Amino acid sequence: AATEFVSAGLRTAKWPQPTAQEDALRDVGLISSSLTYITGLLSSMLDLNKFLHGGQGVPLSPAPISMRHDVLEPVRATFAHHRNAVSLEIVCDDQLWVLADPVRLQQVVMNLAKNASKFVERGFIRLVARSIDQAELAELDARRHERAQAR
Hints:
The protein contains five helices and four strands, in the order ααβαββαβα. By secondary structure, it is α+β, with helices and mostly antiparallel strands. It has a two-stranded antiparallel ribbon. Strands 2-4 form a two-stranded parallel ribbon. The radius of gyration is 19 Å and the shape is globular. The mean pLDDT is 82.
């Protein structure tokens, strides 16, 4: 609610440069998505604490979400403010929707990006999300099984 109030004020204010307003609105959007993400993480921590102390399993809240707009773009925006020398490149169809818990999936993708950034000093990390058919899934599963057997 607070970020909506700030956004409304930014839209009605007079700006010396048109790009300054766009930059400010983009920053407020980042703050809003970051607050949503942090709220979800705190809720997850409380759920995990309950689980560890004999409560029920960690609840998931699956919903139809856009991989690009609800997961990858917020991760890229958050990541960009932390790592200037490394950027995230996203390869994902705008029409790719999944049924998943958005907070958990965003958390997984953020962790993957942070882990990858440990091995990259400059350049980019490419995040790819795409749908696969049953045959591709079976092939990937067979390769995973072969690697596990080789260990």
